[in-house]
Every structure is written in C-alpha cells, then in structure tokens.
Design goal:
- The chain is mainly alpha-helical.
- The chain has one domain (3-123).
- The protein is built from 7 helices and no strands.
- Helix 2 packs parallel to helix 6.
- The longest helix has 18 residues, at 38-55.
- The termini are far apart.
Length: 128
Amino acid sequence: MSIGTSLESTESFSLRQFQLRALQWMSTCFPDAKSKRVEQRALRFLEEAIELAQAVGVTAEQAALLTKQVYDKPVGEARFELGAVMVTLSGVACACTEDLASCAENELTWCIEHSADIQRKNRNKLTI
C-alpha cells in the first residue's frame, strides 16, 4: 500500500468526530464508572501500545528498559503527552506504510460490531 494513495482516500477524516464516535461507543459498551477513570483508560491505551510494539518486533526486554527510562524522568503534563503520542503514532503508521485514519476507522467499526464479545472479555480482564 502506498501511504500517499491511502492518505488521499481519507482526506475527510476528522479526528474530533472520530474521538466523539469512539467516546459514544465506549460509553455504551462500558457504562460503569471504572471504565471512565483516566487511569483505567491509560492502562488500556498502554496495553494496546505494547501490543503494537510487539507486533513490529519490540522485545519485552526493550519495553522493560524503556519503561524504567520513562519512569526515571520527571512526570509530564497529560495535554503535551497526548500530542506527543499522536505525533509518534503517526510516525509509526508511516513507518509501517499504513494509513492511520483507515486503521482507526476499521478498528472502531470492528469494536462496534463485536461489542458483546468485548464486554465479555473486559469482565474477565485483570483489574490493575
């Protein structure tokens, strides 16, 4: 897939609209208060980020070393870290020659279609 071609196909992608649609799905799928806690959302994000890193060849050892390095630094502000995540994720998508907007749309569609399975799996997830 050519990243230039796939980016042209998603020109009308609105990050704000996507965020609102994802929030609507999450609120419907996970109506309990626990799922709305920032720490819980951050843990689910970390889980997905680790799975992405694993999928592209990052080892558990590399992830553990990086985790220590991050926690040895001063704590950042969430709004800046969110921006850094988006920029870095875009870079990973480009390195994988994937269209981030298409990947996001496909995943949200999959989540909506499999909400019951996701709810069942979530009930069995380890609460950290």
